[in-house]
Amino acid sequence: MKWLFLALGVGVFPLAVNSVGDDDWPQFRGKNRDGVAHAVAEIKPWPKEGPRLAWQVDIGEGFSGISVAGDRIFTMFADGKNEFLASFELASGKEVWRVKVDEMLKNRHGNGPRSTPAVDEQNVYGLSSRGHLMAVEKKTGKLQWEAFCKQDFRSEGPGHGFSSSPLVEGNMLLLQTEAGNGKAVAAFDKRSGRVLWTAGYGGDGYCSPTSFIYNGERQFIFVASGKAVALSPAGKILWEKRAGPGLIAMPLFIAPDKVFIPGSGETNGMLMKIAKMQNNFAVEEVWSNNQLRDSFNSPIFYNDHLYGFSGAFLVCIDLATGARKWAQRGFGEGSVVLAGGHLITMGGKGNIALAQATPEKYLEVGSIQALRGKCWTAPTIARNKLLLRNHVEMVCYDLAAQ
């Protein structure tokens, strides 16, 4: 471990919401890590030509998502032989700075970084596909601290590269290291890089950690080695439940007391209910079926229903029963986010659709061919902008100008 600053002291680190604007998208799947642009109150049907294209820029290879804080964009890509963490202007797409993070990973599924950077009020945190974590200053890209999953935690890493996206939570940064020695998750002091605690066992994880509040208490949940594991803010294991091996889609907390774990491969999706008995937690299965096996993009919850991909189908699932309400072809294995009561779906080949989020039927109210080629990165919605990328380029559409 290499520290560039002194630790900030010893003790309990209070948890707080990340200090960014409500209309930002500061980390993987948005501010609340649920794939929902909560600040968007309404989206109108698109005209025939779709929303206005604001800009389009070429970037290097990779699957990293696009994070937004203020007037800046942050993402990762490979250019030449190296992987970079970079900042761009939201208004123009002009590159502001880039920082080398690691040598490029070459893989049969696609080259370059997989992880999405996280942003707070001061820093940007990026993870290379080879497990090098860097914290850099948001304005300049100046290195603040760094960690190495393979050396520091003795992690071999998953076969297709480190893919977990860092989670900013109050004064902590959480990361799945994929280590198998009780260090599968590491909590860092986000200012100094000091390791606060480690917990759990990993080894095959492509999922990202997330957090939620149950019964007034914060919990973190991660998935690795066929288990979903909930941790306390101090790293204590609170409960465990089986999950599909190699799961990429994230578990989804549904207030006040439920967690949905998507299916993976031949493993069914499962809705669980959390209960607390004295000082212990228990989870019980509400239902389990094969109606939502989400290969790599996480589902959305809205108005008592789940929306997500099950193979090549975009589906709507009744949360209470697990019954499928409708299924829609035409996207391949795509991804979906929610804004203003509408689903924005990106197909695996760059076709984008706007549809009302209703269980009655699939009701499309706009579509465009935004990109070509391999499009495995979920859309970002921030500050009235729709940001998309394929494996080698990034585009921005102005949702306010339609």
Distance between the termini: 49 Å
Q: Give the % helix.
A: under 10%
Spatial extent as radius of gyration: 20 Å
Task: Tell me about the largest β-sheet.
Answer: 5 strands, mixed
How many β strands by DSSP?
A: 33
Q: Can you count the helices?
A: 1
How confident overall, as mean pLDDT?
91
The helix/strand class is: mainly beta
Q: Spans of 5+ residues with little confidence (pLDDT < 50)?
A: 1-18
Read across the widest sheet, the strand sequence of neighbours is 1-27-28-29-30
Proportion of residues in β-strands: over 45%
- Write down the overall geometry: globular
Assembly category:
single chain
Describe this structure in words.
- This protein is an all-beta fold and 402 residues long.
- Helices cover 1% and strands 45% of the residues.
- It is globular and about 55 Å long.
- The model is unreliable at 1-18 (pLDDT under 50).
Features:
mainly beta, 402 residues
Brief rundown of the structure:
With 402 residues, the protein is mainly beta. It has one helix at residues 149-153; strands at residues 36-37, 52-58, 67-69, 72-79, 82-89, 95-103, 118-119, 123-127, 132-137, 143-148, 167-169, 172-176, 185-189, 195-199, 210-214, 217-224, 227-231, 237-242, 252-254, 258-261, 269-277, 280-289, 300-302, 305-310, 313-318, 324-328, 335-339, 342-346, 351-356, 363-369, 380-382, 385-389, 393-398. It starts with 35 loop residues before the first strand and ends with a strand.
